[in-house]
Amino acid sequence: MQKIRSHFVCGFIVVKKAHAMEYKCEMDSTNQEMALCEKLRSICKNNKEEKPKESAKIFHKLAQVYRSRSPDKIALIRSAVLFNAALVRKPDNVGEIRKDLHKLCSHVLELADAKQKKADLVQESGAIFAKVKKMRSHVDMVLKKLELSPKSKEAFENHSNKKVKMMEDLQNTIANDFTTIMKVIMELCISIKGTLPCKYALVGMGSLARKEITPNSDFENIIILEDGIEKQGNYEEILEYFRWVAVIFQLIIVNLGETIVAVMDFPYLNNYKEEKYNWYYDAITPRGLSFDGLVPFACKSALGREPTENKPWKTELIKPVSKMLEYLQSDEDLKNGYHLADMLTKTCFVAGDKKMYDAFDEGSWMFMKDPAEMSQRMLKIHNPDLSYVNFSKQLEEDLENFGAMQKSAQTRTEGLINIKRKIYRPITLFVTALSRHYKIKTKSSFDQVRELHRLGEISESFCKKLLFALSIACEVRLKVYSEKQGQKDDLKQNLTTENGVKVTSIERMIGHISYIEFAKTVIHVQRIAMREVRNMTIITERVLFPFMLPFWFSDVLDDQLSSSTFVQIYNKLSEQHRHAFNYLTYGHLGHFLFLDSTPAPHTNIPKAKQNVYTFFSQGADVPIFDAPDEKDLQNIENELVFR
Predict the structure, then answer these.
(1) How many CA atoms lie within 13 A of 182 on its CB side?
(2) CATH architecture of 390-536
(3) Do the beta carbons of residue 163 and residue 146 sit within 8 Å?
(4) What does pLDDT average to over the chain?
(5) Among 185, 183, 203, residue whose Cα is nearest residue 193
(6) What are phi and psi of 312, to 5 degrees?
(7) How many Å apart are CA 107 and CA 359, to the nearest integer?
(8) pLDDT over threshold 50, residue 165
(9) What are the boundaries of each domain within the chain?
(10) Does the pLDDT value for residue 377 go beyond 90?
């Protein structure tokens, strides 16, 4: 008995010492990371690097710190990102860093128990990058052929139809090329890892599914598995197989050298939970083709998201079909929010078993069509309030973040503007909202607009306007990314004067009339989306009304709205309303009407409209104001026939 007790005590001491050693190593690693991040901060100015070669040395050491945290999968991916960040900065010891990157990739293949342990992931990335460059070259060639909008409105309709056709064809081509590249990578990863344990499908989400993707976009994805494997004794082994496939896939993408450090959620560089540790701005690494980031509000890739303080549950997007569908309805996973749930209803097949994907696609469509019925069928509950998304709340947030009335003025000022937030999302988000509201199954945004017309929800005229606005949003984003050679959304707006009219950078990019039509359409589609989906109240009209007035005046000049109706509305406005209208029209929308800074008679404007024109008399700051009568708004909408 004494001997047994002695062995037990000795064993306990050994285990305790092992835990203590592990904790010490963990603390040493954390302290090393903190020290290196502080050193990086010391050589940065305004959170940006001034000495890239010095930064490269720090990133190299940080990469080794994360490599030491093996076999943690996320740590290994972060290590690869840091090695690539160091290489991008062209340090003196490129050979040493590249050798360490090769060692890391070989180490991952050993951990994954890969069939092809000698596979060269860095070399494979090079072959993939050649395909990416070919895709980008084609896009650049097509963009150069796009014409600016004509100066006469008579020729605009033909230009509009041609632009929609070219942009839709281009977006379809990019989506197909992007999908093919991802399929090649996935099949390569399966080949490297070894024999498949079950059927699977790699599924694309987001802009790829909507066919709005660019050659510099993130790849948002999930992996679905065949139903029934969760009942097998080796289910965890199957999941582990695909986790390592996802890691290998990410390493191949990371080794393209286009994953910025900031999206990897490093705790002492870009920690979104602690402001003092969220300071670093990666302005050197090209932001191109990559995976969705590891920051808590992203993580839309197979490995998902680790638990956080605000979301203390793990989200893994590798699941059997039926389990993945439960993400749309389960009480726990609803906490992941609107974006994940919405994206799971608009997906596309990339690689693997197409029939299995079709089953998933049909299931997600049924959830969108009747979430209450599907939740009862699959989860054995009946709660009509437990829908896959709270449309009202999300639209309110989208309006606050991307509403045209907040953004339109800013696109007419000099300085940096974010084209994703000010041009792209203000149109695409609300097309998607209408698609969800009317239970439209088709994935492409262009096809969704046509389906809205087919269902009688928008007129043929507005359908054409909406298709053109989508084309403009995609064109601007592609052109900015192409010019900047990466996913950089900030565009420097320079106002220049051409023929006496102030013109912005965006107008020079797409043409003056195109920008006018785009801005008008964005506001109109947001009004329709809010009214139809949110049962919009008069409070929302208070926000939108002053921004609509200048456009309505433009419609007067275009013979789309009678001047008598406009004068009737204008005469009912308070003095504050009129100041708001004058300010908005002259301040940043006056260029839509081809007006000079000083009102003057125009011989081509009929006398009845000349009376409206004289309203432009003075400017003032935009005040807080009351909304007009709902009847007045309806009169205008009835004449314009937007619906």
Answers:
(1) 31
(2) Up-down Bundle (1.20)
(3) yes
(4) 76
(5) 185
(6) -80, 45
(7) 37
(8) yes
(9) 17-359, 390-536, 556-643
(10) no
